[in-house]
Amino acid sequence: MPASLVVVMHANTVLMLFDSWRKQWELPGGMREQGETARQAAVRELHEETGIRAMDLTFVAVAEFDLVAPERRELLAVYRLQLRVVPTLTVNDEALDFRWWPPTSPIDNDMSPLDAEIAWRVYRRAATACS
Question: Which pTM value belongs to this model?
């Protein structure tokens, strides 16, 4: 898989970052580097984009979707990280801001619909597992 995303959960919210390049709220994650596994890419991207150092990511899904520019089918490894305490987050060149988004609330116009859907599905799955 060429990329990984991390759904970071705290209480009933999911961490979203405001991407400096795409100008939208997204989940932390990105492309694998040469020689990396999908998990290593998730750990690295999470740290680079948020400052969170975590090795205990849980693999939850493979997301398959179609992109339009350029047209292609893409796969993502999706991981989950459940936090008990809100961490200190680090604004940087990639992430201009952070917010804890409740996936049960509406999707804002400046939010990635794909990332919001992935966050919602992981959130719903985790909530169902705890019931």
Answer: 0.92
Q: Is the dihedral of CA 14, 18, 24, 28 positive or negative?
A: negative
- Partners of 101 in the beta sheet? 14
- CA 93, 115, 20 angle in degrees (round to 5)? 15
59-78 pLDDT, tens per residue?
999 999 887 778 888 899 99
- Identify which of 121, 115, 95, 99 has the alpha carbon closest to the alpha carbon of residue 5: 115
Are residues 11 and 53 in contact, defined by beta-carbon separation less than 8 angstroms?
A: no
Tokens of 2: 């060429």
Query: Nearest-CA neighbor of 120 among 43, 42, 13, 39?
Result: 13
CA 110 to chain centroid, in Å, comes to 16
Domains and CATH numbers, the chain: 3-130 (3.90.79.10)
